[in-house]
TrEMBL record:
Organism whose genome encodes this protein: Seonamhaeicola maritimus
Protein name per UniProt: Class I SAM-dependent methyltransferase
Lineage: Bacteria, Pseudomonadati, Bacteroidota, Flavobacteriia, Flavobacteriales
Annotated GO MF terms: methyltransferase activity
GO terms of biological process kind: methylation
InterPro entries given in the database record: SAM-dependent_MTases_sf
Domain of life: Bacteria
The entry's keywords: Methyltransferase, Transferase
Length: 259
């Protein structure tokens, strides 16, 4: 287990601050877009946050920029949100809260690997964060240090193993390189729970096949992409959603509770 005060080697990050600032340089604070993206996970939000007692409870998102998940959850469950992210652009986060009519929030602009938490929270969340570090077990353990007793932690990471790995090697290899595939296994999260004495509430693969790409494609790559998009979007993804697996599902979702 990694204890607070232990320094993580910053050179072991697979991305940089400038990468994320460029990645989210456009304005993402569109109300309907936020709702469309976040409501896709409504079944899991209901497991994560107890709507009967959520009003006034505290929620922090690790790597929360540009704030769409935080603003959605704060609006839906009336929790008090905090965004922790080293991104220097506060305006997009603030705009996300504004369009969802969330007036009370906190923004911490710090590096998660160096920042020492000043308090603990009832709910802790991160999405697409853990897999960008070589020392992913240390990063997972740091999440636990933010969690109150009886609190809940929800982690979401992409799944790039199985058939997905070979597809991405062909058409999305640059994106594949900045993700640590070693953490993309349910056993990693089972070990994390045991290491930190957490109860596993939910642990599953979720979502359809991720055929989208993040790079320019040559002719052959375009053909590969279009075939996969056609086959999965219009035919196979209904089956993948119904029967999630490590071979084809896009996401790993884990929810834990602290005794």
């Amino acid at each position: 287990m990694l204890f607070i005060g232990t320094k993580i080697d910053l050179n072991k990050k697979l991305t940089t601050q400038s990468y994320w600032e460029d990645y989210y340089s456009d304005n993402h604070a569109n109300k309907q877009h936020i709702i469309n993206v976040c409501s896709f996970y409504d079944d899991f939000w209901e497991i994560f946050i107890d709507s009967k007692s959520s009003v006034g409870k505290t929620l922090i998102e690790i790597g929360g920029f540009p704030g769409r998940y935080l603003s959605y959850l704060a609006s839906k469950f009336k929790v008090c949100p905090t965004c922790l992210d080293f991104n220097s652009d506060r305006q997009q986060i603030e705009k996300s809260f504004e369009v969802l009519e969330v007036n009370r929030y906190n923004i911490i602009q710090e590096d998660f690997t160096l920042y020492k938490p000043q308090k603990r929270y009832d709910y802790v969340f991160s999405n697409g964060f853990v897999e960008h570090f070589e020392e992913y077990n240390n990063i997972l353990d740091l999440h636990n240090s933010y969690l109150n007793k009886k609190g809940r932690l929800m982690l979401m990471i992409p799944n790039m193993k199985g058939y997905i790995k070979y597809y991405k090697k062909l058409v999305d290899n640059e994106n594949l390189k900045i993700h640590n595939l070693k953490c993309m296994s349910l056993s990693v999260f089972e070990d994390f729970a045991q290491r930190n004495n957490l109860k596993v509430v939910e642990l599953t693969y979720f979502g359809g096949f991720p055929f989208s790409v993040h790079q320019k494609l040559n002719l052959i790559q375009k053909i590969i992409f279009k075939i996969h998009r056609l086959v999965f979007k219009f035919f196979l993804n209904k089956y993948v959603h119904k029967y999630p697996s490590k071979y084809f599902s896009s996401t790993i979702i884990a929810i834990f509770e602290k005794p």
